[in-house]
Design a protein that fits this description.
The protein is an all-alpha fold. Helices cover about 55% and strands about 0% of the residues.
């Protein structure tokens, strides 16, 4: 956790991808 804000890590990408999938499930009309 030294440079999490400087470059994206695998964990960060996984979390962002998970959140993106959740948002896509909630609002499928917003992502075409």
């Amino acid at each position: 956790m030294l440079a999490l804000g400087r470059f994206p890590t695998i964990e960060f990408l996984e979390r962002r991808g998970f959140q993106f999938q959740q948002m896509r499930k909630k609002c499928p009309w917003a992502w075409r």
